[in-house]
TrEMBL record:
It comes from the Eukaryota. Residues 132-145 have a biased composition (Acidic residues). GO terms for biological process: retrograde vesicle-mediated transport, Golgi to endoplasmic reticulum. One of its GO terms (cellular component) is Dsl1/NZR complex. InterPro entries: NBAS_N (IPR029145). One of its GO terms (molecular function) is SNARE binding. Residues 1-38 form the Neuroblastoma-amplified sequence N-terminal domain. Residues 126-145 are annotated as: Disordered. This is Neuroblastoma-amplified sequence-like.
Length: 204
């Protein structure tokens, strides 16, 4: 199974290298799904302005001879049939953090590695290096949200500092953002109803 830069997915026969299946990105079921909590969160919506960057497949592996594990940049994960890419896990996909990585299935299960990225709270960043100036910008602010006038004067100020090296034109130092990354290794297994019932009784 091959992921192309264009978003296309192809399945080939080995060792003959004969192409068996092909799906363009727009033909892949659920390729444009976005996590519901992202749609409801204003902060998340700001970060997913370019939704198309979340659509492509990021990783793929085999669940069985006739089904593949598909992971997308959005965090959506499905176990899909190689005949029609129908999700074998049900109507909805499983959700992880953005760009999860998956292993092939082994003994009825597979591993998924996800990375949760968060910005440290401002109270933690306030203990940064002395002399750093806090411009009062929120973590969700970005250069794209600045006005054209502010960007123009910023570039002009940088040019004057480059030519004169006068401190009055020196750009203000921004406090570095502290990023916290939490990695999780999740095991997804095929479980029968009897096993779920036994597990529930054990936990009770």
């Amino acid at each position: 199974a091959v992921i192309h830069l264009s978003g296309r997915l192809t399945v080939w026969s080995i060792p003959s290298l004969k192409q068996l299946r092909e799906w363009e990105q727009i033909d892949q079921p659920g390729y444009d799904e976005i996590k519901l909590e992202w749609k409801l969160s204003l902060e998340k919506r700001k970060k997913i302005k370019d939704k198309e960057s979340f659509y492509p497949l990021i990783d793929i592996n085999w669940w069985a001879e006739n089904s593949v594990i598909l992971a997308r940049c959005s965090g959506a994960l499905t176990v899909s049939s190689v005949k029609n890419l129908k999700n074998l896990l049900g109507k909805s996909c499983e959700w992880f953090e953005s760009a999860p990585q998956v292993t092939s299935a082994h003994e009825g299960g597979f591993l998924c590695l996800e990375c949760e990225v968060k910005f440290a709270p401002k109270r933690l960043r306030s203990e940064g290096r002395p002399g750093d100036e806090d411009e009062g910008e929120d973590d969700s602010d970005s250069d794209d949200e600045m006005s054209a006038k502010a960007r123009y004067f910023g570039y002009l100020k940088q040019g004057l500092y480059f030519v004169t090296e006068m401190e009055r034109f020196a750009p203000s130092r921004k406090r570095p953002r502290t990023i916290i990354k939490n990695y999780r290794l999740v095991n997804l297994r095929s479980t029968t109803p009897e096993e779920l019932y036994q597990r529930k009784n054990y936990l009770d």
